[in-house]
Amino acid sequence: MKAFILDKFKDSALRFGEMPEPVLRDDDVLVEIHAAGLNLLDSKIRSGEFKPILPYRPPFILGHDLAGTVVRVGSKVRQFRPGDQIYARPRDGRVGTFAEFIAVNEADVALKTKNLTMEEAASIPLVGLTAWQVLVETARLKKGQKVLIHAGSGGVGTFAIQLAKHLGATVATTTSTANVELVKSLGADVVVDYKKQDFEKILSGYDVVLNSLDSDTLQKSLSVLKPGGKLISISGPPDPDFARDQGLNWFLRQVLRLLSLGIRRKAKRRRISYSFLFMRANGAQLSEITSLIETGIIRPVMDRVFPFEATNDALAYIEAGRSKGKVVVKVR
Ligand SMILES: NC(=O)c1ccc[n+]([C@@H]2O[C@H](COP(=O)([O-])OP(=O)(O)OC[C@H]3O[C@@H](n4cnc5c(N)ncnc54)[C@H](OP(=O)(O)O)[C@@H]3O)[C@@H](O)[C@H]2O)c1
Q1: Distance (Å, rounded) from C-alpha 172 to C-alpha 189?
Q2: Ligand 1 pocket: which of 40, 64, 184 to mutate (most atoms within 8 A of CB)
């Protein structure tokens, strides 16, 4: 099958070549991929940044999001049949959606939302699950609470704003002038234009902050939160709980402990909890997301669809850091 392959970490481009069709395990579905979503995680893995945490060995296929059709199922698969239209974020260690086919554990898969195209559906899983795991699972965001979602116009931000509004929260977000109308249309109540304003001078008394930006933004976010508030970062630094959950060795656990020591101490002094979240594949949560999309509560925000052959251009596009919502490649 045709695929985009990483031959060596730090390579500037993926190679468009032939790979063997995936081997189907008993609890896998074999999916003919129609569209694949792009994420900065693809770029970070390519650069080698995740080497200690996600031990991929080149050559392998990149890509974390897909929508497609089930063509075959393993002997133990119960939830899906050939012909089902599905979408998924395959679990770590088994990614590779920049390809014509992939075998995915059925626990990572959900039926595709009927009201979305394949391209739209492929834009959802990784960012949708991230927003869900931050706001629902970790923050337990409730009606009437206040949440700051950084980078509201990005892939995670556009989804998280809509989910937080659905949960009944008051939502503040940061974005640049050009995207103010977009984030308002998604439901943001307070929009801070970072080109003109400093969020930390405007916002206070928040229950939750979702950080997806740099360490400076992370530090400043502390002053937005009230005592008892939660600072949840998806862009680092990783904390000891994450190191434990990943089963990292003693040395790496100490490194991660030190990396997050500063922010954890500062947070503790203000009675704020700090946690790092690294999203996980989860077909059951993705099914809940499907319902929210089918009932019109959440809509995908698409920036661009590239042809499959232009996957390297699509990666370069998201790496420029200006995408509004999601970028997807159309595989067939
Ligand atoms: N830990 C996890 O599980 C996890 C999961 C998903 C994502 N992530 C990470 O989270 C980060 C965001 O991911 P993403 O997919 O949402 O990224 P993205 O879609 O590429 O984000 C692009 C958006 O960021 C906005 N932006 C850039 N600088 C900003 C600033 N200073 N203030 C406010 N907005 C700013 C841009 O808006 P403007 O053009 O208006 O500046 C643009 O719309 C990445 O580092 C990604 O790797 C982690």
Answers
A1: 6
A2: 40
